[in-house]
Amino acid sequence: MENKFAAADPQERVALALRELYAGYGYRPYRMSKFEEYDLYSRHKDFLVSDGVITFTDTNGKLMALKPDVTLSIIKNSADRPDLTEKLYYSENVYRVSKRAGTFREIPQTGLECFGDVDGYAVGEVLLLAAKSLAAVGGAFVLDVSHLGLLCSQIDRLTDKETVREELLRCAGEKNVHGVSAVCAREGLSPEKSAPLCELLALSGPPSDVLPALSALAKRTGTEAEAAELRAALAAFAESGFEKNVRVDFSVVSDRAYYNGIVFKGFVEGIPECVLSGGQYDNLMRRMGRRSRAIGFAVYPEPLGRIGESRCADADVMLIYEKGSDPAALRRAAEKLIGRGESVLVCPKENPKIRCRKKAVFRDGEVIFLGEDA
Q1: Residues 321, 368 within the same domain
Q2: Are residue 20 and residue 109 in the same domain, yes or no?
Q3: CA distances to 1, 266, 282 from 334, in Å
Q4: Distance from C-alpha of 313 to C-alpha of 2, rounded to nearest angstrom
Q5: How far is CA 312 from CA 8, 13, 130, 160, 315, in A?
Q6: Mind listing the pLDDT tens digit for each residue in 189-225?
Q7: pLDDT tens for residues 80-106?
Q8: Which residues constitute the domain of residue 364?
Q9: CA angle in degrees (0–180, nearest 5) for 118-120-123
Q10: Would you tell me how many other CB atoms lie within 10 Å of the CB of residue 74?
Q11: Largest separation between any pair of C-alpha atoms in the chain
Q12: Which CATH number do you get for residue 308?
């Protein structure tokens, strides 16, 4: 996959690879307008990654927005068919405040949505595609998976105060067990009562290590159904080759007003922030008057521009030819390399501005490799 898209910059290379990946699993491309009525976003501001929205007044007097999000538009413009499974992927530009620049930018975003009749298989498939998406970025990665319903069940059994629930959820997202204990003490809750939540937050690691302890905790707290959902979703990684890249981590949280069930985030070595985020958002569907279930994720492209230079190349091979070389023989040599799946830059002298994984010279009708480019 890397060879095929080697000449692209990191963001473009990943987007091309992801579109091919999702199409291979039967997801259909979704195209949308750049504009959407502002009311759609104003009613669901908490769902947006960025609360900054660029607005303008249309010729008919309606307040419009340059779309800051794709998921909301897909739901709004799709039929509500809980009896059917709809699988879509998108590669669109959204308009948000850039985390890096602090100004509005047009940002490419690629992701997928599965909605309608979303069963256990569909949830597992989306999780597996999330792992494959991270693999397409390149390098070492980890996919952190949680179950928001399980976490919220532990929180809800402690208090019925919504502000306290949100505070505890925030502490969970920060992996702040001390903060959880402090909030519980302030609310007059004994350490014994808050212990299961603290125990849950301490569970982190490979599924094979975490799930046995989680099952025991679930039996004591009446959350067997949620634990079973998480176990079934993680079963998608069996024999996938990605078992070592998956970690159960209950600090992965999302807004419970919109999300439920499985939630997850993906991280790539060398990038300090998540590059992929997703989960089940049945609650959002209900808020938008839909009966369908839904799960999806998005790959965030901005951090990919910071991937180390050593992981990017303009071509696989820089083929340097001597003056007087036979053009026909040189073309045949280059075509032979290209036919082997290599991308080849042919040039009369070495160009230090060009990054290639290998260098070779064309001399006396032969290609002589000089070894890997340091």
Answers
A1: yes
A2: yes
A3: 20, 38, 53
A4: 10
A5: 9, 10, 22, 51, 9
A6: 999 999 999 999 999 999 999 999 999 999 999 999 9
A7: 999 999 999 998 888 777 666 667 777
A8: 313-372
A9: 70
A10: 20
A11: 87
A12: 3.30.930.10
